[in-house]
Amino acid sequence: MSYNLLKGKRGIIFGALDENSIAWKTAERAHEEGAEFVLTNAPVALRMGTINTLAEKTNSEVIPADATKVEDLENLIEKSQEILGGKLDFVLHSIGMSINVRKGKHYTDQNYDWTHKGLDVSAMSFHKLMQTLYKKDAMNEWGSIVALTYMAAQRVFPDYNDMADNKAYLESVARSFGYFFGKDKKVRVNTISQSPTPTSAGQGVKGFTGFMNYAEKMSPLGNATALECADYTLTLFSDLTKKVTLQNLFHDGGFSNMGVSQEIMEAMEE
Ligand SMILES: NC(=O)c1ccc[n+]([C@@H]2O[C@H](COP(=O)([O-])OP(=O)(O)OC[C@H]3O[C@@H](n4cnc5c(N)ncnc54)[C@H](O)[C@@H]3O)[C@@H](O)[C@H]2O)c1
After folding, report:
1. Residue 201 Cβ < 6 Å to ligand 1
2. Which CATH number, 3.30.300.20, 3.50.50.60, 3.50.30.50, 3.40.50.720, labels domain 10-269?
3. Which of 6, 163, 175, 221 could form a disulfide with 33 if both were Cys (CB 3.0 to 4.6 A apart)?
4. What is the pLDDT of residues 79-108, one digit of tens each?
């Protein structure tokens, strides 16, 4: 169902790799809600992925940008404003990558070059993105910036590895930069802490299926899907949430406030 929630709004969506990506679903839903936007991803991901299908479907252009490179971000933000015909109302940072996770390197045996790279891609890129938007004064007043995160920033999930630290940094940047964006530009900045979701990044985490099934059984409403995450993100881009900022918002079917559920108790008694 469409509510025209984003009619007349312009934005940039990072991170649509394939149709499972949370950013992909967000782009589809944002289009249905009347938004116009530019899609972006790292050049290597554009070669591997199928983003052009999404671009056609949503009537949008694709601009490559490695989110760790400030010059790429500058180019992206300038071109996007030219294409869309003005300043931006929303930006989605839906980016995550850990080489330690990908290569099965244990948390107690990090390759620190990989740790640095993962931090840059998954977390510092959010600062770089916001600093570039801020310096270029590219956001409209009452605009909204959202990044996606996971609860391993607050609690221990052993196989989430160095991504836990990256997410803690990301959430902190949202608050710290969100202060200046709020005071100086009336722009809100939030993170959405999403349930485990079967995407390319999600499935890269060791033991992902067990992890997902456990969360499903623990959450009174069950895990939130990528499409449901897209819907929630749109509310934060809309004018209905203008005073929500500096928040880490759990979108997880209630998982984050659970101690134990009946299903898990029963499974442990077997
Ligand atoms: N899938 C989950 O279980 C889950 C749960 C909570 C939060 N998240 C977060 O959601 C976000 C989106 O991930 P997803 O699950 O949709 O997986 P995904 O693999 O579809 O998306 C990750 C994206 O990051 C992009 N990326 C990697 N390096 C980049 C770079 N240098 N520059 C620009 N883009 C780059 C990839 O190309 C890809 O499009 C991530 O921040 C992820 O950590 C995912």
Report:
1. yes
2. 3.40.50.720
3. 6
4. 999 999 999 999 999 999 999 999 999 999
